[in-house]
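User: Hi! Is it possible to get a structure for several chains at once, not just one? Here's what I have:
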Amino acid sequence: MSTNGNNKISLPVINRLPRYYRTVRKMQHNGVTTVSSSELAGMLGTTASQVRQDFNCFGGFGQQGVGYNVDLLSTELESLLMGGDALSTIVIGTGRLGRAISHFLAFDARGFRLIAAFDQHPDEVGSSFGILTVRNINTLGDYCRRYHPQIAVLCIPEEGAAQLAPTLMDLGIRGFWNFSNYDLPSREGVTIVSVHLGDSLTSLGFRVRESLENNP
Amino acid sequence: MSTNGNNKISLPVINRLPRYYRTVRKMQHNGVTTVSSSELAGMLGTTASQVRQDFNCFGGFGQQGVGYNVDLLSTELESLLMGGDALSTIVIGTGRLGRAISHFLAFDARGFRLIAAFDQHPDEVGSSFGILTVRNINTLGDYCRRYHPQIAVLCIPEEGAAQLAPTLMDLGIRGFWNFSNYDLPSREGVTIVSVHLGDSLTSLGFRVRESLENNP
DNA sequence: TAGATTGTTAATCGATTAACAATC
DNA sequence: TAGATTGTTAATCGATTAACAATC
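Assistant: Yes, the chains can be modeled jointly so their relative placement is included. Here is the combined structure:
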């Protein structure tokens, strides 16, 4: 069923949904037809309680005494996560990372559709970018006013992101997948998901060093 | 000061440290010499209480009535996060993503040192990889037994990661920066930080669609 | 029916925030 | 000294886990 009326769904729950979906797809692929909350929990390293709580945010699609129908679960999660029209998406920054991410996005779309790529370097502009051509960053405003992209993927350095973010929000961008080091300011109606590679690496370092101290 | 004795530092705290460090560095760069917990909190979108709680995990380096010395804070955080010997690191998978990530790692090392890269494709093997040369994946075991790398960056598909992970742990890898879709099983003494790009993108999609429903 | 497992309410746990005494 | 701000303890909040009645 669709999202359970007023009950706002918490971020921890939302962030677990993709993993549920991945796991259920895998089971479906293996021909499993029914799964209990405790089986799923075991597979995911969580608790049966959590699985049931999470699924119930969207109106129970289990059957008491039996469990969950894998096909149904898969269909529901899929429509929940990537149902409806594809989100039109632009990439800003076509360096190494921008190209890798865009390839990922184009290869495994998950409800997104890449419609343009922008860069500031003259020698990038005009170069091919998958099935697209890299556009000049100074045509970004015109482009957005004409095509109204919904999502922006930021693969540019901090300064560029800081400068561009408010403009992009004003131009109607509703979601950011941010790979820059800049922390975008939140704004009503705009969703921001940041992948801080540097922070992630730094905390890995801290944790490994901590572990090496206890157990060299 | 170094980590406060027995008090285990919680993961939420650890994950906030890199942001503290980034912010403090920026202030240092701007010539700020002293900062209060509430100023820092304002800058980071958190509370003064949290800042003080977090810093106190490492034995207070503030001064009552005055605040925190920016240089000291920067030095302490730096030594905490990337002090000591660099962690020797290998990359597995030299496709688009592997190359982008490695470039990032080499450019902004943060206490890591990239010492080798491996791939399974014959036409990748032997190609240049920054200052390194791509090695054949089937020499991985020998390499690890000889050079004892501490960190592995996984930029390979799920199946490869699933197959390689236990082997790498047996070979003494102490930390994984995992970009595959595979959820590595945890093991005592091994730290895993996963960057699930697909999950991150999927939850962005969910949240944007949710927001579009309320406010098209 | 009896056994199993959900949906849902209640209890627990941990993290965040507030408060305030210590002290610069 | 008075004002400010930390370090630290206590209160709150939210998320996770446990329990159990409903029901397949």
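The domain at 87-199 of chain B is CATH 3.40.50.720 (Rossmann fold). Residues 1-6 of chain B have pLDDT under 50 and may be disordered.

User: Great, thank you!
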